[in-house]
Amino acid sequence: MDEKKPFLTVFTPTYNRKETLERSYQALLRQSNKDFEWIIVDDGSTDHTWDQVEKWCENENGFPIRYVWKDNGGLHTGYNVAISLARGELAVCIDSDDYMPDNAVQRIYDLWREKGGDDYAGIIGLNSSTEGEILWEKLPDQDSLDLIEWSFGRKAKRRGDKKLVVRTELYREVAPLTGFPGEKYFNPHYMHLQIGLKRQFLVLNECILICDYLSTGMGANMYKQYKNSPNSFLERRKLELSVSRNLKHKLRTGVHFVSSALLAHRFVREFISSQHKGLLLLCFLPGLLLTAIVLVRG
Q: Which pLDDT belongs to residue 218?
């Protein structure tokens, strides 16, 4: 008889975060609903993460834990591995420095069983700080949300991070996220935007993730990321420009597009093929200035 598949796949790409993983694990132990699995994708850690995880696997946790070690390749490669292995109907990434409130899985389960289905991409919920403060603003008071319109529509504004829980089969339609040789900073949110082009997300105006932004996290040195992964950032800028209807966002994205294209030595080719030539000309000098800053600070 086949083993019962979990409702939710929680996956955690990690790199040298043995200590913070303990907090994530303890939070999963406290979940009121344990109809989930936990996949830990170790991106080439050197801090003996496996020694910690092995102890957890020996315990009666109430949920299965799967550990996968891989060569260091960046966050998006961790997503790729986890998505390929996920058995849950829905999947959610919990970063190695973050953790879930005790009722998060239950709230996701309740909403999806009440309203979810093939018409939706998944669920979008709130993040909070470790002090319990909701980060940025709440979501609109409505049943579902168009991620693209909310992010890039005419009335869009900088919203801050929100947590997306995605139907696993839709993740597989856009994965694996193919990166570029030598680049480790291809933001997996690119996949969420691709999914959001086709379906809306159910709105859960409750905290389902507690964030602890560490000084060594991915956002610690964005200039370094821009410098080391220009092709990856350029691909995201191209997607955002193709869907954006917000002038401020278009201008900001245009500046980053120019900078990423220059850093990738692809500006002429990208300019020729772009449908936004006027915007790119307008953004060229600010983009050139950003490039100089990236080269100095990255």
A: 52
